[in-house]
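Milestone M4 deliverable, item 7.
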Amino acid sequence: MDDGDQSFTAPTTTDHLEPLVYSATSEHTHTLIFLHGRGDTAQNFGPQFMNSEHSSGRPLQDLLPGTKFIFPTAKRRRMAASNRCTISQWFDIVSLKDTAQRDEVQIEGLRESSTLIHQIIMQEMASIPRGNIILGGLSQGCATALYALFTFHNASLGGGAARPAIGAMVGMSGWLPFRKQVDEIVDAADGSDEGEDPFDRGEELDSATTASKEMQAVNFFRENIDLPTLTTSQAPVALRTPVFLGHGTADLKVDVALGEGAASTLKSLGMDVRWVPYKDFYHWYKEPDEIDDVVAFLQDKVDLKVVWSA
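Output delivered:
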């Protein structure tokens, strides 16, 4: 892929619009794929995000010159809550108060959107190491990005369970779809160990149990959108990806409890999660605090190159 190109054609299998792309302004070392929220578009959200305030006073493209930014746009989908209304959304959802309500309506959109994101990741892997690819999203974009992360697996993802599927994941003001089912998987796996002495069977018991619930969770997400399940010879490397989750405590649209619950579930699967609540903040990302936190997180996890001055 030519890093000088301003855009590329999105996969046509899901009829999504072409993404908005900001090319790296120096040598291309990293790519951030970032998903907008429900009812928005890449053309509206992308410029806002690129103009986000960092405490350095530098715009993101100057602060991160080696980073390529890709903003896909969600399809327009009919809302289950209103048969006469279509909006831009990554998947349909009945309620943001109870995200598990009639959750079967979410599956089609999650299937199509995950396919799109997986294809973009694979395209980027052709030009940079997968460990330098970052996936992120705001609100429903965060929920979709998490689902796409859980279900991303490719035959080229060698290197064993210690290597992540991609470099990092950044979520803002979002939630984890089908978290209830994953929590049930974790509870069942953890409950099966109650009353057992792990020293009776050596150190292998704990790692085997953890791997079991990791594999069950990943395969649940994959089966849910008609992807083949992973076999015992395929490590669920998506769960080795470090995750940043930020959320305003005064969010009236997506309750902070949903974000905190997502962080808790991911941690229960052994994931490296940095959870940051922003006191008295609403449904958006907090500037410059959250932008500062994300940049610092990515410096730590993927060695993101930051240029602090001109």
